[in-house]
Amino acid sequence: MDYSLLIELIGFVEEFQKGNPSNRLGDFVIWLNNKLFASEQESKHPAHDELLIAFKIIYLNKELKKQTKSVLSRSKVSSIDEYSFLLHLDYQESFRKMEIIDLHNLEAPTGIEIIKRLLKNKLVEEFADEDDKRAKRIKITRKGIKEIQVIKPQIDKVFAKFTEPLNLDEKIQMSGILDKLS
């Protein structure tokens, strides 16, 4: 019987255990997958790690949008950006339009369209800024508050399920890593 595969696997286990405190099989499988995939691709594509991270972040963003769509389809809020605008307005009395658009890292036309939809559905209202008469401010309406109260628990469930595979330490670490990237 040929044991070369088993011997190679034992070598990988030894390497994993030197650099990782975990004894979980799942952690080893992820580590091994990354090691084998990265070593195969790095010679062909030196910037592979950066590209892979970017694509994974883009994928996760799309996945979250897809998962929240079912909740939002039953509400006056049509996108996760609209939901986020309302959530921020629920926490703060008001924002200048461009402040909230910049906070969400959106282009001005996209942000203005979101605000128009929220105004049309009477979830926010606009008024003149006292400090800058050229600027407009928006604030959440009672209808907007009621809408948030209905959909927030459902969205929170989606987010909790999304991060369920992570333990508390991993969630804290992930948050710190994402802060570095943003």
Name the CATH architecture of the largest domain: Orthogonal Bundle
CATH topology of the largest domain: Arc Repressor Mutant, subunit A
* Spatial gap, N to C terminus: 53 Å
Strand order of the largest sheet: 1-3-2
Major sheet attributes: 3 strands, antiparallel
The total count of helices amounts to: 8
User: Which outline best applies?
Assistant: elongated
Strand content: 5-15%
Integer tally of domains: 2
**Uncertain segments:** none
Following the backbone from N to C, one meets helices and strands in this order, namely: HHHHEHHEEHH
Can you count the beta strands? 3
| Rg on CA atoms, Å | 23 Å
State the helicity in percent bands.
Answer: 55-70%
Task: Summarize the structure in words.
- The protein has 182 residues and is mostly helical.
- The chain has 2 domains: 1-46, no CATH class; 64-158, Arc Repressor Mutant, subunit A (Orthogonal Bundle), CATH 1.10.10.10.
- It is built from 8 helices and 3 strands.
- Strand 2 (124-128) and strand 3 form a beta hairpin.
- Helix 3 packs across helix 7 and helix 4 (80-91) crosses helix 6 (108-120).
- The longest helix has 25 residues, at 48-72.
- It is elongated and about 80 Å long.
SSE topology:
Elements: H1 4-19, H2 25-42, H3 48-72, H4 80-91, E1 95-96, H5 97-103, H6 108-120, E2 124-128, E3 136-140, H7 142-163, H8 168-181
Antiparallel strand pairs: 1-3, 2-3
Helix pairs in contact: 3-7, 4-6, 5-6
